[in-house]
Amino acid sequence: MSFPVFPIYTSTNFHKFIHAKLPTTMTVDKSHVGHVVVLPYPSQGHINPLLQFAKRLVSKGLKATIATTHYTLSSITDASVTVEPISDGFDDHGFAQAQSEELFLESFKSNGSRTLTQLIEKHQTTKDPITCVVYDSFLPWALEVAKENGILGGPFFTNSAAVTAIFSRIHDGTLRLPLGTEDGLVVIPGVPSLDSEDLPSFLNAPASYPAYLKMKLNQFSNLKKADWIFSNTFESLESEVVKSVSDQWPAKLIGPMVPSAYLDGRIEGDKGYGASLWKPLDNGCGRWLETKPPNSVVYVSFGSMVSLTQQEMEELAWGLQESGFYYIWVVRDIERHKLPKGFLDLTTQNQEKGMVVNWCNQLEMLAYESVGCFVTHCGWNSTLEGLSLGVPMVGIPKWADQWTDAKFIADVWCVGVRAKVDRGTGIVKREEVVLCLNEVMNEGEKGLEIKKNARKWKELAKEAISEGGSSDKAIEEFVLSLKNMP
């Protein structure tokens, strides 16, 4: 699970765009209003898309309340949605307070079911009774709570449709673990042939992350009771995958759940997700980027969960330096000691060449004209952000669904390349970093094709969420069904 960061874009042209007069098509209809509780799994990479969905619902005339854990409550500050607490049993420090993933999930199920019920009951005698619960698919117990209280409910899947299709077929027995075959390939309808390096990392060794695997499979445990299923993807991006699994997983595709200012501009002031578990950086990165030529900077971020080894950090550091391109690299404070001293000296003494920062607003960075490449761990939120902003990518996936996302980035959507791991050391060497950056950043045949495809997917993402687009229609159908309830 990855944690993206939050944007407040300042570049001149984009600044004019987000402050332009907005179309009147998104005015809120106050005559019929439903009330949706939106329940995210309490990590940044899950809060972001569900909160963004809540804002979309509000923009179309519904009332939305985010139900989140006490520990994450203060991190959500968007004015358009109400935020109310429920308990995961670890109110002081959240997941860090639990001893294991399994203990946390069990505690969240028991305490969350009780406190979500209390939240629903509290609202049922008000002028805005809750009519539906949209919950993170990691929390299927929320559907049981909805049904026990006589209201509607549906899961929100935060992974790609391709990853969801894999787990859906494991759950229904079509695929069996481990997924290895004689020729090393796994064939799933609607999905290109996948080898072991393209599958979610722990499926080749199911015992390696038992709690996480159980959680992924439990997403489908009560799916037949759901009134809707939502997925953070869009039709043109994964239509073949979705068709292939529609019998088991008839999802409404409502993505990309990226702030409106970066796509259709129809939600006034929607420049950021509206939540942050992390302290944002000042605008030094933006000022630095404004001094660089178009498509000249490499932006590097592995989210908030991925931890590279010291050797991996060293190889990436010297690869960036030897590539000759400008770069901004986001390195968390707890990881900074792994950087080579000579490299840190270079960035300290000569910030003209590159910057190492402890955090920055990812969407803001990707939206700058000077950024020509995104080196990413290929978490799904980061992947959608790269696609939506039209930025070519170099994928260096580390675990879980990132491996599958990287396959699609490189070989299906063709918006980037996937760095090859050295067989001897198991890491991406500096020579490979340089090779990948040259392929993506330079004007060779492959680089030009990647840039062309990146521009294409940017337009298709915008089209999907704009008025009358496939995702917009799917959201509209859901909204109308709630507004028209007796």
From TrEMBL:
PANTHER family xref list: GLUCOSYL/GLUCURONOSYL TRANSFERASES, UDP-GLYCOSYLTRANSFERASE 74B1
UniProtKB keywords: Glycosyltransferase, Transferase
EC numbers on record: 2.4.1.-
InterPro entries: UDP_glucos_trans, UDP_glycos_trans_CS
Coiled coil ranges: none
Organism: Tagetes erecta
Family to which this protein belongs: Belongs to the UDP-glycosyltransferase family.
Annotated protein name in UniProt: Glycosyltransferase
Keyword Cell division: no
Pfam families: UDPGT (PF00201)
Molecular function via GO: quercetin 3-O-glucosyltransferase activity; quercetin 7-O-glucosyltransferase activity
Origin organism lineage: Eukaryota, Viridiplantae, Streptophyta, Embryophyta, Tracheophyta
Leading EC class: transferase
